[in-house]
Design brief:
single chain, alpha+beta, 174 residues
């Protein structure tokens, strides 16, 4: 009986706790999409602009462009979620230029127009305002990277509750 109790206690103590699972999400900077029901993450990359104003100005502009890309990707995920369009989960290779975009396009294949994304930005502004930069990388002189996250309780459910002020112009190519 004591052995059985000891074994049960051992296996219960070896199960991952919610805090460990949350910590793993917090240190995941390679995947895009819903890392868990409470965390949406996107990756934005941009090339340094060719300016004569100096490296600091180039860095700031590059990071702004990368953040804009990450927010646009968040909007695409939100639209896919809101419209119940299927997403295919694929791990992103954030280090290879171009590969991250191909993986993202494969995960979220519905092509939204600039008009759709502009309307979505207005409709989902309260969620975008909850977002923050989890990581920014300016180690190379070719490009910069921004990891953008939105956290909240049951984000997919919250996104589905939003009523869109428009209908997408393009039909899904699934």
């Amino acid at each position: 009986m004591k052995l059985l109790l000891l074994l049960i206690l051992f296996f219960v103590s070896c199960a991952p706790t919610e805090s460990i699972l949350k910590e793993n999400v917090d240190f995941n900077f390679k995947e895009e999409g819903f890392l868990d029901p409470d965390t949406l993450q996107t990756i934005g990359e941009a090339l340094y602009p060719a300016l004569s104003e100096g490296i600091e100005t180039q860095r700031v502009l590059c990071l702004k462009q990368a953040l804009d890309v990450a927010k646009e990707r968040s909007l695409r995920i939100m639209l896919h979620t809101n419209l119940n369009l299927p997403a295919r989960k694929v791990t992103v290779n954030a280090t290879a230029t171009g590969t991250a975009q191909k993986d993202f396009d494969r995960d979220y294949p519905f092509p939204f127009s600039k008009r759709d994304l502009l309307h979505a930005e207005i409709d989902f502004m309260p969620l975008l305002d909850k977002g923050y930069i989890a990581l920014q990388d300016t180690r190379t002189m070719e490009k910069c990277t921004v990891i953008f996250r939105i956290k909240g309780d049951d984000l997919p459910g919250e996104i589905r509750k939003y009523k869109l002020s428009f209908m997408p112009l393009v039909k899904p190519k699934l």
